[in-house]
Amino acid sequence: MVRIPDIAQAMGLSVSTVYKAFNGGKDINENTRAEILKTAAQMGYVGKPRAFSHKRVCVFLEHMEYPHVTYYLYEIVLAFKRAASEQGYEVVIRSLDDDSAMTYNQIMKQYCFEGSLLLGLNTQDRCYKQLEKVEYPCVIIDNYIDNPNISCISADNVRGMGLVVSHLLSLGHRRIGFINGERGSMTSAERLSGYISAITLGGVQYNPDLTLHGDFSEDSGAHCAKQLITKNITALCCASDLMAIGAIRQLQQMGLRVPEDISVCGFDDIRLSRYITPELTTVHIDVDNVGTRAFLCLENLMNGNACAKILEPPQLIVRQSTAPLAQN
Hints:
The protein has ten helices and twelve strands. The protein has helices at 4-11, 15-22, 30-43, 67-86, 104-110, 157-170, 186-201, 218-228, 241-253, 287-302; strands at residues 56-61, 90-94, 115-119, 138-141, 150-155, 176-180, 211-213, 235-238, 263-265, 282-284, 309-312, 315-317. Strand 1 (56-61), helix 4 and strand 2 form a beta-alpha-beta unit. The radius of gyration is 20 Å and the shape is globular.
């Protein structure tokens, strides 16, 4: 069994640093905390509640290699783990790919999990179809599956992206590019829908040539921005903050100024978004609230109370990366 000292040794950190990372210590750098959690999940670490309990729940993280998991989904995991531990639940963090020969139901039975939280799921994933027949309580983030044993918590992606586009339109922008997330993601589909609706309602004809798909990562944001800038856009909205950060980096390398030459918006309001230059205009999603509500939903499911879908309200945060359209 992997212990906290094993994680500390593997990362060259002190045991106290790793312990603080798992228990929400305020003096731990958020990037360090995320890397510790990622390493712990990859090593198969099993978290323990403060007091002994036989109650066990699992956090399944898919696609743990994606950078956006580090900055967004792990913050949800932290809040979920705190809420579960306070109620005496042992929390195990793992990937469904760790037991690729087993179905979801078999894994739940094998390891005596009473319920689970599932993050990073894509409609193309191996387990997606399995979830239609899930027999154990499960909460999924940013997805929806019609099953009474499953609850979904999601950002209101359509409304959130609508806030971003409406903000850019109010600044006079009409050539607004969109860097979306990966294909097959429900989050991507909803954020694209919000973009198209807001553009259309704003009196601008939707142009599919101004939309590209990335994978929610910083590198994909940079790659897509380099292509979209050739299409005479004056503003760029991105389906994640990491893609927006990558886009800003690429634009600056090309000699363009943000926001003087081009405005850029993100989505999620990860902590890094307020520390970059310029500070990022984005859509705030309360990830702590998402994680806490995820556990409360799971607890209700485990007690026999169904809850189909909860939408987390978005909030537009205007910072320095957007400005009125420059008049030539």
